[in-house]
Amino acid sequence: MPPLSDKELEERLTAAGNSLLQPPSSLDELLPLLDQIEELLSKVEQSPAKSMQAALSPLMKALVAEELVKHPNVDVKVGVASCISEITRITAPDAPYDDDKMKDVFQLIVSSFENLADTSSRSHEKRATILETVAKVRSCVIMLDLECDQMIIEMFQNFLKSIRVYHAEVIFASMETIMTLVLEESEDISPDLLNPILATLKRNNEAVMPIAKKLAERVIQNSADKLRPYLTQALESLDASLDDYSEVVLLVVAE
């Protein structure tokens, strides 16, 4: 897409938003429309002018319509999540929607991380971009404010299940950043939140990939001081011995 003036960008965003208010039923039309919208949104700077905010308004409304957020097609949902992720970047540090809508948004974003392992998917690049954006604009911290505890656990599980050695370094780094941020910014860390990490670090767990173990270890090391008392509690709640876990757990707890 050639460079656009602000006015042209505003006009295109308004038109795209109006198109999406009554989205095409055909995937062959809807998916390219979402691709186009994502590209347009990527050109919008943070804290835009009032005229740009007005141009974004129909689009922001359309993107969180139930028929899109709960669309049966996975690629559509990831496309929508990718567009909304751009919106969160544009409005950061403020949330673009009210609390209930933001919960829907985060559910969509978290579900988009589920298949990050599949690099052949049409949506792989979008999933990776969403991940990077969440890490960069720290939108995961809003999840804590909204008390999306179960969603955060699901996100941790998705990361640890889907990280692969063939992923670009930025994917690993973004996951590490998000998980560390969530732990550091949490007022209280439940055993449930630590369980996916501890399960990954269990000795002789052959189902766990070494790269997932590396991610879990890195996150624990990053937040060692914060995690120490919570790790002890989590191990007690699991009735588990330190010997059952990777050395990094022992080192953090024993310090």
Explain this structure.
InterPro entries: ARM-like (IPR011989), ARM-type_fold (IPR016024), Pds5 (IPR039776). The protein has helices spanning 6-21, 27-42, 50-63, 66-69, 74-91, 99-112, 124-137, 140-145, 149-162, 169-185, 191-200, 210-222, 224-237, 247-254. By secondary structure, it is mostly helical. The protein has a single domain (6-187), classed as Alpha Horseshoe (Leucine-rich Repeat Variant). The chain is elongated, with a radius of gyration of 20 Å. The mean pLDDT is 94.
Q: Concise description?
A:
With 255 residues, the protein is mainly alpha-helical. The protein has a single domain, classed as Leucine-rich Repeat Variant (Alpha Horseshoe), CATH 1.25.10.
In DSSP terms, counting alpha (H) and pi (I) runs of 4 or more, how many helices?
A: 14
The percentage of residues in β strands lies in under 5%
Main sheet record? none
Kindly report the oligomeric state of this protein. Answer: single chain
Quick one: CATH superfamily?
A: Leucine-rich Repeat Variant
Shape: elongated
Q: What number is the mean pLDDT?
A: 94
Q: What structural class do helix, strand and pairing data support? A: mainly alpha
The portion of residues assigned to helices is 55-70%
Number of domain modules: 1
Annotation, overall tally of beta strands: 0
CATH topology: Leucine-rich Repeat Variant
Catalogue the unreliable spans.
Answer: none
Nearest-angstrom radius of gyration? 20 Å
CATH architecture verdict: Alpha Horseshoe
CATH class: Mainly Alpha
* N-to-C SSE string, H for helix and E for strand: HHHHHHHHHHHHHH
Distance between the termini: 55 Å
Subcellular location: Nucleus
GO cellular component, one term: chromatin
Protein name: Sister chromatid cohesion protein PDS5
Keywords: Cell cycle, Cell division, DNA damage, DNA repair, Mitosis, Nucleus
